[in-house]
Amino acid sequence: MVGIYSLQHVVDWLVPGRELFLALHVLGVACFIYIVSKRLVPLPRAQSDPRFDQPLVRMGRVFKFWLGQWKHPRYKFAGTLHLLIFAGFILLALRAFTVLIVGVSENFAMPGLSGKTGQIYDLITDYAATVVFLCMAVAAVRRLVFKPARYAVPARYGKGHTADAVFLLGLIAILMVADSLFAASRSAGHVQQGQPAETLAAFSLPWMLQMAVGSLPMATIWGLNVGAYLVHEITFYFLLCYRPFGIQFHVETSLFSIYFSKLERGTLKPVRWDVPEERLDQLKSFGVKTFEDFTWKHILDFYSCADCGRCAENCPSNAVGRPLAPRFLTVKARDYAFKHYPVIGKANNSKPLIGTVFSEDEIWSCTTCGACEEECPLLVEYIDKIVDLRRGMIDDGNVPQSLQKPLKALESRGNPYGKIEKKRADWAKTPDFQQSTKVKVLDGKNAADTLYFVDSITSYDDRMQSIGRATARILSHLGKNFGILGAAEKDSGHEVRRFGEEMLFMALRDHNTEAIKASGVQRIVTADPHAFNALKHDYEDVPPVEHISQVLAREARAGNLRFNAADNWLENRDRVYTYHDPCYLGRHNQVYDDPRDVLDSIPGLNRVEMQRSRDRSFCCGGGGLMLFYEPKEEQRMGVMRVRMAAEAGANAIVTACPFCMVNIEDAIKVAGMEGKMSVIDLTELVDQHMVCEGCPDRTQKLETATVGG
Ligand code: SF4
Ligand code: SF4
Predict the structure, then answer these.
(1) How close is the Cα of 293 to the center of ligand 1, in Å?
(2) Does ligand 2 come within 6 angstroms of the Cβ of 309?
(3) How many helices (H) and strands (E) does the chain have?
(4) Which residues contact 346 (CB under 8 A, 6 or more apart)?
(5) Which atom of ligand 2 is nearest to the CA of 312?
(6) Is the pTM of this model over 0.85?
(7) d(CA 231, CA 264)
(8) Which residue, by CA, sits nearest to atom 3 of ligand 1?
(9) What number does CATH give the domain 412-555?
(10) The domain 577-689: what is its CATH number?
(11) Which tens digit of pLDDT belongs to each residue from 497-538?
(12) Between 16 and 562, whose confidence is greater?
């Protein structure tokens, strides 16, 4: 009987093996390079995006989010499965390359992996191959039998992706079996020949296969060894070349996507990175209209999405039935790239995206809440892309009817309601309020070191004005030397910018920046997270800004802010509060603990958490000028949020944003929960409870009584 001495021996018998395997390697690698190079064609044609700064920070993110798979455990089962597969792949990478090279160089061993170390590595990778194989089986059963809802593809977004996913799982499983059978048959052959055999890890897949084939005739073992090798090699290269045709391309691109990911939360990309603001008016076209108007990083994102559906599952627009699911923005853009930049044939590009790939409603439906970006394990970005697409639509005069009036009003009056500038500070002129609190208008005659930036909704909306008064009373009680800009303040422009009206935003920003600088203040405080985010990230050259919750938490910790017990209030006795994180305070600026700490320093206040809280908070529906837009939807986001609060056992929602207040207040009415649920702003609650000499009688019901309660 012919003995099995080595793989080279085997292939020498079969064909001139070295040449065969070398040819397969060269062909596989060449195909892969060709396909990837074709996939990369749109990137240099795309817009610039300066992502080459801070290499150490970026490397840190690669370690955390790519190698450490940081976000995967947010989904416990699927995350654990992915972690195991990823760890298995990382461990098996060297073994796979070693097996490939052994075909052309029979005694090859990876540097550092010969002798004892190599044996230990082999044992570990025996288990790794087993774990990956089992994970493939579990993942396939999950896809085919349990069918998690987030993988489903609604008819309007095309065909389901299950078949492709299962095919890929099958290929990886074949790779693991081939790898294990190769090791098992080699070891079995050596045993039969009385040669020193590799020790296979007990109960691993290779070990079990060795048990199964060990007693077979030598020729069969030999055949299995050759067959396993060939299957391994062909599957390996097939997978390598097949991946760039679908979601598995993320295996190659995600590392780069994460390295080049956006570092600053809450910020928005400029219209064009390579065109300074003062030259924007010379641009022929604004925003994204064609595929090539995206930046190269955004196109890389399209390739890097793993189609896991986490973004869509957490997207409030998707949840309420708006025509937007972020996952499909990416899937459609990737399909577009594959179709218009084919692997074989010429690129066929520059088609308008709106109306062909994306619908107008889809792009207007986003509240820029950031839930999708927070959830994505591969740090795929959405808000910048959506705002860029909006910029393109605005540039084409494509503005939803309901938004035309507020935009005109913002242009002419500096607020979306069209109210006159002189009335901007009227909220501070009610007789009751003026008795207890004096608010300076920093108009050149008065000076202060803190500016309270009020913004439009709190200045003009009758209900929200009480947030302004509560904030001013608190600042006054804390002894802050503060003032407001009054008629000199215009809308912060935060929503305008996210709506895509960059030039209008710039005009508002420049006006406010001048007014702030002229006021001579050293710091800014605001009770509006949208103004907070704008002043912090969209403005330059203005003093540091804080949200009022940050000031309150600091003062409470320092003992300067003390509270009466919550249960001193008759109507508060059975009240169970829950805190709703506003998107632009929480997710975009990471202020989660301060508002909660303030609430928890009110003695006797009973607080529960909603299931979706902190970075998983559910948007109220107010961002991105949504207060003025009526999207197609099956229900309101606010209504869903109010129900979430009720499910948590709360009957009072505390928020820290006037936009949230408007939406939740409306939602309580729409949901028919008046009398069962109430909403109050954090400043109003603090104002009601703070121990304050000279404040109105705390035992009386204040003007800030909770809505709906
Ligand atoms: S930002 Fe919010 S609303 Fe917009 S796509 Fe992402 S999750 Fe959906
Ligand atoms: S964008 Fe991210 S979260 Fe959304 S489907 Fe793709 S990988 Fe998953």
Answers:
(1) 21
(2) yes
(3) 29, 9
(4) none
(5) 4
(6) yes
(7) 46
(8) 366
(9) 1.20.1050
(10) 3.40.50
(11) 999 999 999 999 999 999 999 999 999 999 999 999 999 999
(12) 562
